[in-house]
Amino acid sequence: MKMKDRPIEYLELSARPAWVMKNSNIKTISDLLEYSRPELRRFTNFGKVSANEVEGRLGNLGLQLRDATKKRIWIPGYWHYFSKRDFDKQ
Prior knowledge:
Mean pLDDT: 84
Structural class: alpha+beta
Low-confidence stretches: none
CATH class: Mainly Alpha
Order of helices and strands: HHHHEEH
Strand order of the largest sheet: 1-2
Shape: globular
Number of helices: 5
Strand content: 5-15%
CATH topology: DNA polymerase, domain 1
CATH architecture: Orthogonal Bundle
Number of domains: 1
Radius of gyration: 14 Å
CATH superfamily: 5' to 3' exonuclease, C-terminal subdomain
Helix content: 40-55%
Largest sheet: 2 strands, antiparallel
């Protein structure tokens, strides 16, 4: 099983971030990696300490959250990511 396909419980998060993940329907590490730090911080009861814990656990596995400078747009069937430069081109 690929690391990204493992359930979120694999990260062994403390109670608060684990509860937020469950209530936000984030079931796998892959689901979690689709979010940036600012997006996670918008969840109720998900503060700096929770964000630091999640980033630390992912970092231990060689993974990181999505880059916040990239915008994502839903194209039927998948998310498409654009960098800020894609929007600045005129």
